[in-house]
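Internal ticket #5521
Category: modeling
Description: The requester needs a full-assembly model to guide mutagenesis choices. All entity lines are attached below as received. Residue total reported by intake: 879.
Assigned to: D.W.
Attached entities:
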Amino acid sequence: MSFRHFLNFEGLSPQRIGSFFSKVDQLNFYENIKPNHHIVAHLFFEPSTRTQMSFTMATIRCGAQPLSFPFENSSLKKGETFLDTLLTVQAMGVSAMVVRHGYPESMKDILGVIQIPLINAGEGSSGHPTQALLDVYTILKERGRVEGETVLFVGDVSHSRVAWSNFGLLSLLGAKIGLCSPKEWLPQSKKYKFEYFDTLEDGVKWATVVMALRVQKERHSVIQNFDIKKYQVNGDILKKIKSDAIIMHPAPFNREVEITNDVLNDPRCVIWKQVANGVKVRTVLLKEILKLQ
Amino acid sequence: MSFRHFLNFEGLSPQRIGSFFSKVDQLNFYENIKPNHHIVAHLFFEPSTRTQMSFTMATIRCGAQPLSFPFENSSLKKGETFLDTLLTVQAMGVSAMVVRHGYPESMKDILGVIQIPLINAGEGSSGHPTQALLDVYTILKERGRVEGETVLFVGDVSHSRVAWSNFGLLSLLGAKIGLCSPKEWLPQSKKYKFEYFDTLEDGVKWATVVMALRVQKERHSVIQNFDIKKYQVNGDILKKIKSDAIIMHPAPFNREVEITNDVLNDPRCVIWKQVANGVKVRTVLLKEILKLQ
Amino acid sequence: MSFRHFLNFEGLSPQRIGSFFSKVDQLNFYENIKPNHHIVAHLFFEPSTRTQMSFTMATIRCGAQPLSFPFENSSLKKGETFLDTLLTVQAMGVSAMVVRHGYPESMKDILGVIQIPLINAGEGSSGHPTQALLDVYTILKERGRVEGETVLFVGDVSHSRVAWSNFGLLSLLGAKIGLCSPKEWLPQSKKYKFEYFDTLEDGVKWATVVMALRVQKERHSVIQNFDIKKYQVNGDILKKIKSDAIIMHPAPFNREVEITNDVLNDPRCVIWKQVANGVKVRTVLLKEILKLQ
């Protein structure tokens, strides 16, 4: 069964995810690209570098052509609504659209008007499911399993769409979720079960996967007494991290803020593998959506 | 006979347009794209979303590669003239160039310096001939004919390059042109024959095609007593539009300004078909220009 | 032997350059493009139109796909370092990267962190070696030789990365270098041997190649008594230029500032050939780097 849309992990089984990851294992990027007739629109209504470039790579790897939307220079400035822009691009005959938008319910609103496949490339602070796919695929490859893993999220968890999407997929696959965060940034949820850690040291002793999150500097002022050092994955913390654990970050990261250079250079740190896996999972996702396999 | 350039409708016969439209009918977008050696430059010296994306789609559909020009970030800022930029891009070895520029005689000036085929993608407020091609092709497909159709243009007609290009093509093919517009925005022309309507109701009773034009908000202040409602295609007007007429708009449109939601949802409204036809006519045009058929 | 990286002319022999130029002679741009599996990243951390478009054309001509980096809208704004951006793009699986950056030692710093082939597309004011390749190839084709040619650089020489890269390649191939420049803009170098000319007239009487450089208006104020006319290649100077000499400019140029219209229209002026040759030399360079021939 192929995906029709890819918006979140609702309705997916661990078996479905497992067969998806098997396809990722089988990708071969060294064959000449065979062009097909598909054009995939990339519509980012928020700034993005890495996710947009990653989807562009994935689109090319599929033999399809990317059609990007010049956000800065667009008809939105002429009074057109965001949904009318999507309807216009749909009418042009693209096969699918990859969309990022800043408000939480954007994908639901889009689904209400379009007929072609839609891929969620980031939605408010609520979800970024292809990031979770690449993160969890990385855990599987680097740790050999997902079920039973103990995954610690560090920092500004509640505003992180990466974290929220990871909660969904990790829970589905039977991993345990730990949180180490200032209380103002602790997520509220009845859906997921969390372990709470007051100190980062306690957290990393528990964790087989340490996921540092980007500190968004504009949010610092919200927390009066925010002590960046308390949630920094640094050389001292590195000594407490299990020898066979892995260290992840969704990037872009702030060196020497939430993560330090010695951690980034540690062999347990797999952030560049995350980036590489991102292109792979998005390629398989697009192939499924475009029914290319 | 192929087009060498495509700048306007001068010198074209109804037969020539008819054979062009026949080719549009025969397009098949579901075959794998076969790359050729052509690279087509897209040089938009004015902001554009839909026209530029439409030409990009058309270029890809031809098996050619688009080369876009980073207008915001260009050598124009280093003191280079617009014509020198075009000469540079020509020298790079592109097969054709698609150009939009803000002043009325821009295409004539460009033709004076370049040797490769040139496609007019919008020229001052004087012309936008590929938009007219897609509009008239849409009339043909939706109404079954162009000759004898009664096409009403509503709103800011005199500043609309879409309207001016439509006048040329519709006149050539024997359609009748009606206008309903504030007197400040009525076009002056000895070349075309117009029917004038004081009220939108009278106009739509006459029309088989109602073409609403975008209200450019920056022009409102020019007209002291401009009453937007008088030229708005809305629910009341909808009831007076012929049951077999079609409603068009070149887009982007301002919902609830020149056109209302109930009109956009009416089955007679064919704006998304216009967008789809835009990619088709531009694909055939590029194929002719590149001598691919 | 293929290039692994292309950063400057160190370690290259005249024979190596000669065999490279032979390949440029043999290019055929009229064959259908055959897609391979390569994706080449273009990362311009400074504004660029012509060089970026030229590399995009070259990438397409190779059968590879360009992946451009949205500089204005990038993760750099989220606090990511320039080198981390490059590491990210490398991790995505591109085959090579074409980079321009504003500071002089940027290529050395990049080489310290990446493993994939790197092409220097402009580095501070110190080097722009593909521009030198295209300039010297143009001299070879238009003058029939490089060794023994007398090449005069006019204007703001010391800040011109184009000039510095040309010095390297011209010296390697046995051409003589002349300078005509305000004393504030005279380059200091123990590496290269220069002939100095106090007047442009004396310079052009000596030269078989006259290379006018762009006047960067923002630098005028530095020189109190800068007399633009003294270094302007204009109609008066044109009469003194040898009848079989050629006139070059790396562009973009300021008409009627450093070079006048009558000079640009003179048959000895080969600036559009430089642009055309730019795509050619970059195509061969990428083919070598990607091991496509």
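Resolution: model delivered.
Comment from assignee: DSSP finds ten helices and nine strands in chain C.
Ticket closed.
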